[in-house]
Every structure is written in structure tokens, then in C-alpha cells.
Amino acid sequence: DSLRLDIDVTDLEAVRRHFSLGAMKLVGHQWGTAVLLKYWLRYPARVERAVLLAPFPHKGDFVWELQYLPNDSLAHRRHGAARAARLDSTDPAGYCRGFWGFAFSPIEEVDPRVVRRLAPVICNAPPQQLRQREAVQRQLYLSFGTWNWVDSIPTMTIPALVITGSGTE
Predict the structure, then answer these.
(1) For a Cys-Cys bond, which of 30, 36, 37, 59 suits 148, CB 3.0-4.6 Å?
(2) Burial grade of 93 (CB within 10 A; 0-12, 13-18, 19 or more)
(3) What is the dihedral of CA 13, 14, 17, 23, to 10 degrees?
(4) pTM
């Protein structure tokens, strides 16, 4: 129940108050960008600057729109076969090392060099936590309801740097 955007925003404000901080300079990565944006929308005077790294999708429909972009069909077939074989349950660490790129990005990361290079850090968790990853992500997405920040983002009056990649090195 605690995996909700509004709770993360409330927690961030509690940290700010606890340390008696004024307006903050915040950096958010992926999910953290959603927390940062919702925090700014709720408490605009408490954010001085923002850096958004690999931002969370700006609207819920974006996640569905990505399905229609070109993708690596071979990687998708391998991922489907691994799911059908239930490797996500029987070998969560191996499954994570091979397919984390399908779970941690709205656009799957399938470049084998990137997947191999980042897998040790991303998949460094006990098997039970790795098995729960999808349930955790589902809970986070459900906490949003229907979201669309297209109108809100342009109203940010603070300096903000958005950093995103093109999928190439």
C-alpha cells in the first residue's frame, strides 16, 4: 500500500521539513522524475531547480503508444519464450540479467552490450525481490490512475534540465 506516488511526494516533503530545508535543487531518475514533478506541482515554491534523467512518461497513453514503435522482434521472441518457460519465477536472477531491459524502461533496452554491462547492478537483489518486481511496478503504475502532465510540464517556472538518451552510445 505504501508504493504510491502521493506517498512518495509526502515523504519527500517530510524529509525537507525534517532537515529544515528551504527550496531544493532536485534530481530525479525515471520514477524519481514523476515524484519530482508531482512534488513541484504540489509545492512549487519548494523546488528551486530540477534535473530529470530518463524521465518517466509524461502521460499514461505514452506507454501504450510505444508498443507501435519499431522494436527488435528477435529480442521480443526471446523474452516471450523466457516468460513462457517461467524463468522469471524459476530463475529470477538469470531472467533479470537477460531481460531487465524490458522492465525498467518504457522502451525496451535490447542492446546486448548495455544489458550485460548494467545487469550486475540492476539484478543485485534476492530472488524473492526479483520475483516481485513486476507486481511492484504494477502497483506504482496503478497509483497514478490516468495521468497526463502535458499541460502541467510547460508551467514549470524553475530552471530544469531534461536528459534522455536515444538508445545509442
Answers:
(1) 59
(2) middle
(3) -20
(4) 0.70
